[in-house]
Write a structure and sequence with these properties.
One of its GO terms (cellular component) is cytoplasm. By secondary structure, this protein is α/β, with parallel strands linked by helices. The chain contains nine helices and 19 strands. It has three domains: 162 residues, Ribonuclease Inhibitor (Leucine-rich repeat, LRR (right-handed beta-alpha superhelix), Alpha-Beta Horseshoe), CATH 3.80.10.10; 86 residues, 2-Layer Sandwich (Phosphorylase Kinase, domain 1); 146 residues, Transferase(Phosphotransferase) domain 1 (Transferase(Phosphotransferase), domain 1).
């Protein structure tokens, strides 16, 4: 871990040098014609006037990790600006001048000190709003008047209610984890477009946290596992290759060890992800925890996960700035229909298992599906997972909300079938329509979907 901290400090220093170099180039006038400008970590207290020399080309501006608390009234002079990041600055309100930027569609102000948002701060073409880890207790009703809104990330605030967004036609992804909701907004389970939802860490689901978390999970002490090199890093933690000592019923073997970061992620809290990853165990198509590593006080330090071979790769890349809520697949990707069927059957069965044990994945995307290219697809990453509330109607509604995410996956894979004339494509197209129908309550549950994709159907 000492080496890791040294590497982090080196990376921070390199980023500072890079930012200072960019700022110097901006002031010399060397960046004429640029479309993207990264001024993170430049110790700025105000927006440099030289930025406005880029008004005819600048589309993306990153001002993260500075000392800004306001933005100038002249910001709309950047008339081509589509994306702005102000994360990690001491803003206490979302700058109203943003609302006057006619082309602005993506706003990211994560980890500031924002407690006030005016409707005037929301530009007319707003599509993607990131306000994770702030102090917001109320959102303006004007949020419901932004028809392009597709991705809304609000984890780690103080919200108890939301404006009614049931008429927002494109809202697909919503992050509400770690807020103060005592119940889910009623319109959530009626929204025709919503597919990806994170609710963990709110009172109405967090009270289920300890009761539904598995009590019989194997617990290891740090001396029972030997940590090796870093093999991966995600938003919520670091993954190392490790060696598990003999500890019945767990045999000695190489494993993956995930250590969680303390920080709030865009999806929620690390302890909620830990609990979900433990509770998800018991299905061959789920990458769930096999054990936890706890300190002397019983606090979870890390989770033991299966060590997957290099043949397992994400089925797609995560959404881009342009695609917003949809995954990005490799150009020209095609797959045999029998392989698509294996993937969909595996994931439907995995999702049915999760909902049966009281969990919603919340991030059912191709980029969270690991595929070995032949016969195994694994659902991974429980960062957005939530325990399901006990009320049967709400529980059923949340399951069918997630069914829409599965329907979009079917749609994406059908577009990549190598033989669209295969009769099974017609079966998948019918399933897609059932999963995507706008009346949420009429969508099939995952158990029914899994049965439709069973071995008998595939032949």
């Amino acid at each position: 871990m000492n080496k890791l901290r040294i590497n982090q400090k080196m990376n921070h220093s390199l980023n500072m040098i890079k930012s200072e170099s960019t700022l110097a180039a901006l002031r010399r006038g060397d960046l004429a014609g640029t479309r993207r400008l990264d001024l993170r970590g430049c110790n700025l207290e105000r927006l440099p006037e030289e930025v406005f020399a880029l008004a005819d080309t600048l589309e993306e501006l990153d001002l993260g990790d500075n000392r800004l608390s306001t933005l100038p009234d002249t910001l709309p002079r950047l008339h081509r600006l589509r994306v702005i990041f102000g994360s990690g600055n001491p803003f206490t309100e979302l700058p109203e001048v943003l609302g006057a930027c006619g082309q602005l569609s993506m706003i990211g102000f994560r980890g500031c000190q924002i407690d006030t948002i005016s409707g005037a701060a929301l530009p007319p073409r707003l599509r993607w709003l990131i306000l994770t880890d702030n102090r917001i207790s109320r959102l303006p009703d004007a949020l419901a008047e932004r028809p392009d809104m597709e991705k809304l990330m609000l984890a780690g605030n103080r919200l108890e209610a939301l404006p009614d967004l049931s008429a927002s036609p494109r809202l697909a992804l919503l992050r509400l984890a770690a807020n103060h909701f005592s119940t889910a907004p009623g319109w959530l389970v009626r929204h025709p477009a919503l597919a990806w939802l994170a609710l963990s860490g709110n009172p109405f689901v967090h009270r289920l946290f300890h009761r539904l978390s598995p009590s019989g999970i194997t617990t290891l002490s740090p001396c029972q596992i030997k940590e090796d090199q870093l093999i991966g890093e995600g938003a919520s933690g670091l993954i190392h290759r490790a060696w598990l000592n003999e500890n019945p019923p767990l045999p000695a073997r190489p494993v993956a060890l995930k250590r969680f970061k303390a920080a709030m992620t865009s999806d929620g809290l690390p302890d909620c992800e830990q609990a979900a990853c433990l509770a998800a165990a018991g299905h061959a198509s789920i990458v769930a925890a096999e054990a936890r590593v706890a300190d002397a006080q019983g606090r979870t330090e890390a989770l033991v996960l299966p060590l997957l071979g290099p043949e397992f790769r994400p089925l797609a890349g995560p959404p881009s700035l342009a695609s917003c809520s949809r995954d990005v697949y490799a150009d020209g990707l095609t797959m045999p229909v029998d392989k698509l069927w294996i993937i969909l059957q595996s994931i439907a069965s995995a999702a049915a298992h999760l909902h049966r044990v009281g969990l919603m994945h919340g991030d059912l995307y191709a980029h969270n599906i690991l595929w070995n290219g032949e016969d195994r697809a694994l659902l991974s990453d429980f960062g957005a997972a939530s325990f399901l509330p006990e009320a049967a109607g709400l529980r059923a509604g949340l399951e069918r909300l997630e069914v829409r995410a599965f329907g979009l996956l079917v749609e994406e894979l059908l577009q990549r079938a190598d033989d669209p004339a295969d009769a099974r494509c017609a079966q998948l197209a019918a399933l897609r329509e059932d999963c995507l129908q706008p009346e949420v309550a009429r969508r099939p549950a995952f158990g029914e979907i899994s049965a439709r994709l069973g071995p008998a159907s595939a032949r």
